[in-house]
Amino acid sequence: MADTSRTVNALYALLADNTTSKIKAQTLRDLLKSLTSGYGSLWIQHGTSPSGISIETYAKPMVGFTSSGISSGVTPVISTSTLIPEVDGVYDLFFQGSYAGSASQTFHFHARKNGVEIPGACCDRKLGVGGDVGSCSFELPVVLTSGVGVRLWLNADDSGKEVTPISGQLSLTRIG
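The structure corresponding to this sequence follows.
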């Protein structure tokens, strides 16, 4: 029998009443699985080579994560830099990244689900004239649907700019 991670409402329905002693062992295993699963991450550490990410004024998917962290209930997909939850719920969405890029340019990072920007899941950073390394971060709870991926997108104030991810992580943790 496979243990199943369930939504909070599904758990309430299963555990609503035990006056007839109908709560089965499988229901209790599903409860434990639901309480201990729902996390995943992508990350890059010490990136140095140009990533080939050409940035425009319109948003483009951010790529460049090189590894996936531990996961359970969230599938990290390195090739598309996407995190896909396996269960509907409320998730803590966290992004932190440092990057080098074109001098005197403001870069805008934002998360999208199904290609639609998630309100509040964004940050901006302007690099100095020396083309220094900047960092940007955001964190907030978001409602996600099973199978609908979350990706980081990026754009700049001017066309034809470039970004090289140095270090960073994008993660989802189920909180409800």
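The longest helix spans residues 25-35.
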